[in-house]
Amino acid sequence: MRPPGPRHATTDCHAPALAGWLTERGLVSAESRWTRLPAGRSNRVWRLDPPVGAPLICKLGLPDHATPIFPNDPAAEAAALDHLARTGLAPAPVAAIASPWGPVLMMEELAVTGPATPAAVGAALARLHRVPVMPETRKLLLDGASLLAEAEAMLDTAPPVLRATISAKRPDTPAPETGAIGLLHGDPAPDNVLATAAGIRFVDWQCPATGDPVFDLACFAAPSMRLAAGVDPLSDDELDDLLRGYENGAVAARFKRWRACLSYRFAAHAAWRVAHGHPDYAAGARAEIDLLEHLAR
C-alpha cells in the first residue's frame, strides 16, 4: 500500500475539479495522488496513485491541439485502445468518459524499463501492422502528389526564410504505391514508444490510421520527430537495425524509395510548428533539411 497523499494532491489547475468529478462517479479514489506528467504535447496527462492498487494514467483530451498531419481525436484513441486490448501493444483501457473539460481516457500505467532499441521497435511495428485494421480511420497512402500538396499547404504559413530553404529541397517522388494496407499507429515518435518488461508498447493513439507501414517507420525515424522527443536522430546503423527488426524486405525497400518525400513532409510540419508558437521545432526542420541534402547526393 502506498501512503495516502493529500486529497487530490496536484499542482495542475485542471486536476482538482476533474478529480472531484471523477470521484463522484466512482472512477477514482478520493485519496488518489495526481501527478502531472510532462508526456503529451497535445493533451493533459496525469499519473494517479491510489492508496491501494496499481497506478493509472488519466488523459484529458484537448482536440483543438492537432496539427495538419497529426489529428488529435480522443474518440479514435479510445477505439484504438479497445481494438488493441488483447494484443499487448498498447496500454489496457480502463474507462472513457466525456467530462465538462473534455474527453477523459483512463488506462493502465506502464512501467518503463529502459530505452526502446530500434530493432525492438521494428519488430513491434511489424506485429502492430499485422493486427486487423480498425473501421473508419483516416487513410495514409504513398501518393506523391497528395503528400507534397500536404507539405506545401503547411509551408504556406511557415517563416519565409525557412519556407524558402525547405522548398528548395523539394524531392522528386516515386510513382504512387497504394496497395499495402495495415493498421498504423499514426504517430510512433520515440516518446510514444515505451520499452516495458512485457515488450514494446505504443501510447498516444489519438491519430490511428489505415495505410502503408512505411508511414510509421518514417515517423519513428524522422529527425524532426526524434529531436522533438528529446532524443538524437538515428545513426545509419540504428536505421538498419530498425529495418532489420521489421523483417520485411519489401517494406524496407518502399521506405527507402519514399524517405525523401516523407522527410520533406516532416520538414514542412516542423516549419508549421515553428509558425504556430513552437520555435523549438526549428532544429527539427534543419535536421530534415540536412537529411534531404544527404538523400539527394
Task: Please state roughly what percent of the residues sit in beta strands, choosing from under 5%, 5-15%, 15-25%, 25-35%, 35-45% or over 45%.
Answer: 15-25%
Please estimate the helix content: 25-40%
Question: Could you name the CATH class of the largest domain?
Answer: Alpha Beta
Q: In whole angstroms, how far apart are the ends?
A: 60 Å
Q: Which structural class should the secondary elements be placed in?
A: alpha+beta
CATH architectural category of the largest domain: Alpha-Beta Complex
Mean pLDDT: 93
Organism: Palleronia salina
Keywords: Transferase
GO molecular function: transferase activity
Protein name: Phosphotransferase enzyme family protein
If you had to describe this structure to a student in words, what would you say it looks like?
- With 297 residues, the protein is an alpha+beta fold.
- It has two domains: 15-109, Phosphorylase Kinase, domain 1; 113-295, Alpha-Beta Complex (Aminoglycoside 3'-phosphotransferase, Chain: A, domain 2), CATH 3.90.1200.10.
- The chain has ten helices and eleven strands.
- It has helices at 15-24, 74-83, 118-129, 144-155, 160-167, 214-221, 223-228, 236-246, 249-275, 282-295, and strands at residues 33-36, 44-49, 56-60, 93-99, 102-108, 112-114, 138-140, 182-184, 193-196, 199-202, 209-211.
- The strands form three sheets. A five-stranded antiparallel β-sheet has the order 1-2-3-5-4, sandwiched between helices. A three-stranded antiparallel β-sheet has the order 6-9-10, covered by helices on one side. It has a three-stranded mixed β-sheet with strand order 7-11-8, with no helix packed on it.
- The N and C termini lie far apart (60 Å).
- Residues 1-11 have low confidence and may be disordered.
